[in-house]
Design goal:
heterodimer; A: alpha/beta; 8-stranded parallel β-barrel; two-stranded antiparallel ribbon; 16 helices; globular; B: 8-stranded parallel beta barrel
Chain lengths: 440, 436
């Protein structure tokens, strides 16, 4: 039934063992200066042991100014190459491919940190949810960031990893250029779709120049912005038609695969689709309070009934049609328009749902974030014939909300026998503990 | 001349320290959330060992996860932590520097409770007054369990090759919560009279002695002046100096090899670390604590809102203005020294060789411990060695290090001490870079 999931997938320059990808999920496991730690290695190895075919790394900033939050391993300097080489080696021992995600946050951050309190963006308007302030990039700064992406990609190749993913979605810097709801430039990087796409296309060409034609390069894109899902008074941003055109251009420029997500921000009601856990938000949102202009307003709003209820209603109204596979129609539309494989993100965790999506031709593979946090050995469970993990992810989004202050892990107490068991599961990342399926 | 005094070896019971300057307990959230240690902690300690201090007193090492001040500190709660400490201590020893492990239980005095234990334990069930951390009262049997945790922690410290143990008994942590007449409201044998309030501390000392034997250095850090009401005037003042000195005498009888004199019945406290209250910085990092206690939101508004932030800063800075910043605890140390015959260490803003040498020669104390000035100048002792009286860029007591460390890497954040913001950041990040 689920055979199609466990067939190899061949990209132009890379063949992976199955159709399951671990999406970029991070956790503040590294050092504040962007150097990597043993914990990051143990974190990623955990998923490799669980049977995943490909691991897309944590969001890896190509420059310290492009961080979302401190404590993610950077790819900003050659001194980081040995760490990534070691990480890749450890992951590949378990048969998984390792594809770093090279990224730049722009104005959308969680904690600005002590090095560069202000981000860079296509615009100088603050990010609308938290109010992170930013500077509008000059053309020279754009060229510097393009080059930073290219050099980061070179480091990935030098670290002998399996490919590169350019993080082009979810409201980070590339979205800030692509989206007509954000990009308000008058120069050659703003205005028409062609102009808005210039920045990512320059990045792809510069990356290709550095990694050559024989190294895997995939691009993660938000197929739709749905910019007004929360900010209902604003425009809807990039449409599917725009994105299809951008993907065609990207393919011409040398992209070997697309990873389809959605939403012009992170988090966004469509991604990760699910609940808005108010009690957890109150407990960890404080960590961000000093970061943006509007964070204090939000803090009070999240604490105050009925404002927090209204926010939760706005948050969940996009997902009433279902969470698992929310992006499949978008992935299908893109797959029909390009000649390279397409991976789809969004709540996947049920074997038949994934298999049918692949067999129907909606996508060639799926990526998973939260369901793997809940069940790191989900691929092994599916391979053993289960349709779902015995305790599936509930899409409560508590993992997402907790990671700013606490170790990334599953915080859905209902999934565990006790709170103690939950805490043990969360802290097991520091011990390289065995997975349930490895203990007989 | 000052160096002649400072460079004299110091005997702390069976432990010989090569000079009179020790690094005080200094944390930094370098370790893993589960209390396992990291190479960054090792780098951090080597920074001071290389700088020439005679001994390093470790970061606050919890004897149980529930006794943690905040996540990110290495524990000594389990035998599985011994290899980490052994490795760290061996690296420190390469620099001819002694290592004293500080065993701690924070009780209700927490900074971030974290995900494991929503409530703390204490002598009382009253919430901690500054942040409002909720707490449960330890049962009599519960107190005895904590005594055993300390004894086990001491055994592990010795197994790890530490040169001694210090009990974190000052600054409002669990020992203070038992000792203090302002906090301890128990009716059992651990509350009431001074003798009862001291019982927990003395039982821990005796249990450790039994565990490690007579020839192993054991110190006790104590706040001689508690002045719990210095910051929050509606609280009680706490133990008198005479009460604290009586406790010191009992500790000596019970087998303590040295006393380490601090002040304040809470942490932070206007006397410790004495200095500025950097309101602008506090707003940037105190938010990290907001979801932790019952009264943190009140504090957040106070710190953010003029004129409350000004009034609070003025109030905070009064004791330092009245008593001076460098050597603020010397008069208390002198009283302790007169009360006992074991060596007395004194903490509190030391960074001038002549001040330190003068205190030792006068007999106020036998040695000093330093925290913030070493964060600013880890090579301070090297400057003293060269005959300088102070570092070229001394610590300004801005207390920015203290208020930053909850959210940012522990380091000197007084930009006026650096040529540029970039230089400051480079120095702050050095701890991640030193090859380990």
């Amino acid at each position: 039934l689920t055979e199609s999931i466990f067939q190899a997938l061949a990209f132009r320059n890379l063949t992976v063992k199955n159709r399951l990808f671990r999406s970029s999920i991070s956790g503040r496991f590294d050092n504040y200066d962007g150097s990597g730690t043993q914990t990051r290695i143990d974190w990623d190895v955990k998923f490799a042991r669980g049977g995943i075919g490909t691991i897309i790394s944590s969001n890896s900033p190509v420059h310290p100014r492009g961080i979302i939050v401190p404590n993610y391993a950077h790819l900003d300097d050659d001194d980081k190459i040995p760490f990534w080489r070691e990480l890749g080696k450890r992951v590949r021992e378990h048969g998984a491919a390792y594809v770093p995600q090279i990224a730049y946050s722009g104005r959308q951050r969680d904690i600005g940190g002590i090095v560069y309190p202000k981000g860079l963006s296509s615009t100088d308007k603050p990010e609308p949810i938290h109010g992170f302030e930013c500077e509008r990039m000059t053309v020279a700064q754009i060229a510097e960031v393009v080059e930073a992406f290219a050099q980061a990609a070179r480091r990935v190749r030098e670290a002998q990893l399996d490919g590169v993913e350019i993080h082009g979605c979810n409201g980070y810097l590339i979205t800030q250029f692509l989206s007509p709801a954000i990009n308000d430039r008058k120069d050659e990087y703003g205005g028409s779709l062609e102009n808005r796409a210039r920045f990512p296309l320059e990045i792809v060409r510069a990356v290709r120049r550095e990694i050559g034609d024989d190294f895997h390069l995939q691009f993660k894109i938000s197929a739709v912005d749905d910019h007004n899902a929360l900010l209902f008074w604003q425009g809807k941003g990039t449409t599917l038609e725009d994105s299809i055109q951008v993907c065609r251009w990207l393919e011409e420029a040398g992209v070997d695969g697309f990873h389809v997500s959605s939403g012009s921000s992170f988090p966004h009601p469509r991604n990760p689709a699910g609940d808005f856990p108010i009690a957890d938000v109150i407990r960890s949102y404080d960590t961000m309070l000093s970061s943006g202009k509007y964070t204090f307003r939000n803090y009070v709003a999240f604490r105050t009934w009925p404002i927090n209820r209204l926010f939760r209603w706005l948050w969940t109204r996009r997902t009433r049609g279902g969470i698992e596979g929310i992006n499949l129609p978008l992935a299908r539309a893109i797959k029909e328009s390009v000649g390279v494989p397409v991976i789809c993100a969004g709540g996947f965790q049920t074997g038949p749902v994934i298999a049918e999506a692949i067999e129907r031709g909606d996508c060639d593979g799926v990526s998973m974030g939260r369901p793997l946090i809940a069940n790191p050995d989900l691929p092994n469970l599916l391979a053993s014939g289960l349709e779902r993990a015995p305790r599936p992810c509930t899409y409560c989004n508590k993992c997402l909300i907790n990671f700013v202050e606490n170790p990334l892990g599953c915080y859905e107490e209902a999934r565990f026998e006790s709170r103690d068991e939950m805490v043990r599961h969360i802290l097991s990342v520091y011990r390289g503990a065995p997975l349930p399926s490895e203990v007989t | 001349v000052s160096w002649d005094v400072i460079s004299r070896p110091l005997e702390l019971g069976p432990l010989m320290v090569k000079n009179r300057v020790l690094r005080s307990s200094l944390g930094g959230r370098w370790d893993n959330y589960d209390g396992s240690g990291t190479p960054v902690r090792v780098n951090w300690e080597l920074r001071y060992a290389r700088g020439g201090v005679g001994a390093i007193i470790s970061s606050n090492a919890p004897v149980h996860p529930r006794g943690r001040l905040l996540p990110g500190y290495a524990y000594i709660d389990d035998d599985d932590k011994v290899p980490f400490w052994r490795d760290l201590i061996a690296r420190v020893h390469e620099h001819d520097c002694a290592y004293i492990l500080q065993l701690a239980h924070a009780g209700r005095e927490r900074i971030i409770p974290g995900i494991e234990y929503a409530t703390a334990v204490s002598s009382t069930d009253e919430a901690e007054p500054l942040n409002g951390f909720e707490t449960e009262r330890l049962t009599t049997e519960g107190v005895r369990e904590v005594v055993r945790m300390f004894a086990d922690g001491a055994r592990r410290a010795k197994e790890a090759g530490a040169d001694g143990i210090e009990l974190a008994g000052a600054n409002g942590v669990l020992f203070t919560q038992f000792l203090s007449s302002a906090i301890n409201d128990r009716n059992d044998e651990y509350g009431g009279s001074l003798e009862n309030r001291a019982r927990f501390s003395l039982e821990v000392v005796r249990a450790i002695r039994e565990q490690v034997g007579p020839d192993y250095c054991l110190g006790f850090k104590i706040s001689i002046e508690e002045v719990l009401n210095e910051l929050l005037p509606w609280l009680k003042r706490g133990n008198t100096v005479e009460e604290s000195l009586q406790v010191c005498r009992w500790l000596e009888e019970a087998g303590v090899d040295y006393l380490h004199v601090s002040s304040g019945g809470g942490f932070p406290h206007p006397r410790n670390p004495v200095g500025d209250f950097p309101a602008a910085d506090v707003v940037k990092t105190f938010d990290t604590l907001l979801s932790s206690g019952r009264t943190t939101f009140r504090n957040y508004l106070v710190f953010r809102t003029w004129p409350f932030s000004k009034i609070f800063s003025w109030w905070w800075e009064r004791p330092g203005k009245r008593l001076g910043r460098e050597g603020i605890n010397l008069s208390a140390a002198r009283l302790a020294k007169q009360a006992v015959s074991i060596p007395v260490l004194c903490t509190g803003g030391f960074q001038t060789a002549s001040v330190i040498a003068g205190a030792i020669e006068r007999g106020d104390c036998d040695g000093v411990t330093i925290a913030r000035p070493l964060v600013a100048n880890p090579n301070l002792v090297r400057f003293f060695e060269q005959g300088r009286d102070s570092a070229p860029r001394p610590c300004t007591y801005s207390n920015k290090c203290l208020f930053a460390f909850v959210e940012n890497p522990l380091a000197c954040y007084d930009e006026s001490r650096f040529d540029s913001h970039e230089e400051m950041i480079r120095e702050a990040f050095e701890v991640f870079r030193v090859a380990s």
